[in-house]
Amino acid sequence: MTEKTKVEQTAEQTAEEQSTVVSEEATKEVESPAVEEPKPEINYLDPDIFAEVKTVTKRELQDANQEADIPEDVKQKYNNTISDISENQVIDGRIIGMNDKEVLVDIGFKSEGIINRAEFGEKAPKVGEKMEVFLEYIEDRSGNTVLSKEKADFMRRWREIKELYDSEKVLTGKIIRRIKGGMVVDLEGVQAFLPGSQIDVRPVQDFDKYLDQEIELRIVKLNETRKNVVVSHKIILEESLKEQREALFEKIEAGQVMEGRVKNITDFGVFIDLGGIDGLLHITDLSWGRVNHSSEIVEMDETLTIKIIDYDEEKRRVSLGLKQLTPHPWENVEDKYPIESQIKGKIVSMTNYGVFVEIEPGVEGLIHVSEMSWTRHVRNPSEIYSMGDEVDAMVLSIDSEERKISLGAKQLQPDPWDEIEDRFMIGTIQKGKVINLTQFGAFVELAEGIDGLIHVSDLSWTKVIRHPKEVLEKNQDVEVRVLEVSRDSRRISLGLKQVSDDPWPEIIKHFTGGKSVDGEIIRVLDKGIIVQLEMDVEGIIPTTKLSKRDRKAMGRKFKQGATVTAVVMEVKPDDKKVILFMEDLAAEVSKKRDDVSDYLDKQNIPAGEKIELPDELLNSVSDDDDKTEKTETKDQD
Hints:
alpha+beta; five-stranded mixed barrel
């Protein structure tokens, strides 16, 4: 803004309005200072000075300007007193004074500017010192010209940063704090963002170690409008490694052994820094043995001696190996672990059919479930072993071509079946415990790991057993007789009924033909009625010769739990049955048929009419076979 004196403004106003220059309001303005806080009184000009003010017209003023001949040196001095100053710009200034709170700066303006003393920090400014300042306000609410040193320093530094960005030069910054995604760097007054991925050529694990560290950087992105700066340290490192990388690519070849530093550890392998080139050490090439995770073998920043397995010059990919520096463990494995030798190892894998034991890294053997115990029926290895268990085993066989070793754990113990025939002689009575019940019989443990089978047919002399649970319970102590022993098939046949004598000779004597006996109905079957007789014998009243209609009718008449009287017809020990006969059974069925006929004769129903039978008759006899089945199905529903 071009400065214009109050005298000139007053002269123009006087020429236009033909009035006096000084009014009462102007006088009041001079007498009343325009500040909010009271200040010490200052003596301005003598009031009598206004007596010299002259009133002129506009034309007189114009004529005077035309006639005036001002020397050039005077004009130059006058123009030098007028500064082209505006807000929000950097200008030059000189310190002319200060107090505890403010620093007074001459900027060549009609009034001096002030800077907050705190902007200078601990370093005190000196009077007469020249510096760049930022003009914030030409005149604030208190009438002061407000300046800023910090903003001027920022603008100056921003110009330097822009020059560094344009020229792609390196600068130094100090990391001051960590934020999401990276770090904040102080570039001598300007803060920049350093992304975490641009700190180093390898992934950074610990960001805190970089705090308060000075680091070389290059500006990779600059937004002048938002005053945002993004810097990178990685780009400097990459450039410094570029020459090393190119030289290394020329020398590298498959089979070469060299050193490298662990740069990153992943689930599938390890990345190794070979001095500018990253190579992949796959997890399968870390060790001849099993490796669940790469961190089991190596650590971050560890220096390793590795072997170049493969090198793709076109794709610049390097495959590395660590285990290849040691001999293959399967070399001379037959000499190290001969057949029937005892080994010690750790379980590294479990399957349904066995466990894999690591004898040494890269050499594993299988203990099949059938080789775990002489006596136990092992269905799953988890019944005996757990992952990581240390086990002893015997080498049973070796297949070097297939790289398979068969191991056995039970072979380290004596085989109890070698003396089984002498220990459990046929015909002897043994004590045991029921350990399992199946549809075909019950397994009884005779000794630890030795069990035998009682077939269902050997559970009872007199009853037909459909399931062992009808006679035995699990964990029940029983006495059994040894019926058969097979060392080769490792089987022992036992009998429960054979512990007592066969009762059938006495049963035959007791149940003579034609003898009348009483019994309780225990089952009603299509083939007959099963009756429980004395001497723990079951009798059967056959009904197979009756028609299906008569069998249905008989089934409704004779209920389970009822007592009947019958005549002994025959005794069959092989079938474990006494055959019985009921004289009134056929008569009872025939009587029901006669009742139906008599009822129909009495009704005198015309032909073609629907016949309604009483419920009593319907309950005592059946209709035809199809209607009977439908009725039973309806009742079941």
